[in-house]
Task: inverse folding
């Protein structure tokens, strides 16, 4: 019973940390820079893959319910924001980071898991951004613009977040018991 309660607490903590990561944002022309992905990676590196995904589903449902946990607010209408695809990718990315880092016998399992998670976020986010903008919002944005403003400019910061989350996870998992949550 205690471990189930601990798991639920950690899931809630990572949902909250992801929400807190939206507060610290740097506005860019189309997609803001936040710390949310750092906490997506960290959730995957510390929690079981399934629990990491659940933490991000809770984050999404909280924002869609109207609580302003996304970088530009919240509510069901947020689905129609071109940047929602990046958030929509969070559960899959957290699961991937957890799956790879939890099963990797390599020393760099956290880094590899986080890299795969970043690729998932960028891919789903960019595809959603392009489709929603061009076919539903009538904004006429090119693939090149989406890739530059939604991927390329974020790569240096994302590399820093991937490495930082992996380093912090190694230290925290020594204290917490290495993905036994």
Result:
């Amino acid at each position: 019973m205690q471990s189930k309660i601990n798991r639920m607490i950690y899931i809630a903590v990572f949902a909250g940390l992801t929400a807190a990561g939206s507060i610290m944002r740097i506005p860019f022309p189309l997609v803001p820079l936040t710390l949310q992905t750092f906490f997506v990676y960290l959730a995957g590196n510390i929690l079981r893959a399934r629990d990491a995904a659940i933490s991000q589903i809770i984050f999404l449902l909280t924002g869609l319910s109207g609580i302003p946990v996304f970088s530009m607010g919240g509510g069901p209408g947020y689905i129609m924001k071109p940047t929602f695809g990046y958030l929509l990718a969070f559960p899959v990315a957290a699961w991937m980071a957890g799956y790879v880092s939890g099963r990797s016998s390599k020393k760099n399992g956290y880094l590899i898991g986080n890299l795969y998670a970043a690729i998932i976020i960028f891919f789903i986010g960019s595809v959603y951004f392009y489709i929603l903008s061009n076919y539903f919002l009538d904004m006429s944005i090119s693939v090149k613009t989406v890739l530059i403003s939604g991927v390329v400019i974020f790569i240096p910061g994302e590399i820093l977040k991937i490495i930082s989350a992996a380093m912090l996870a190694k230290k925290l998992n020594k204290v917490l018991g290495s993905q036994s949550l």
Observations:
- The chain has a mean pLDDT of 92.
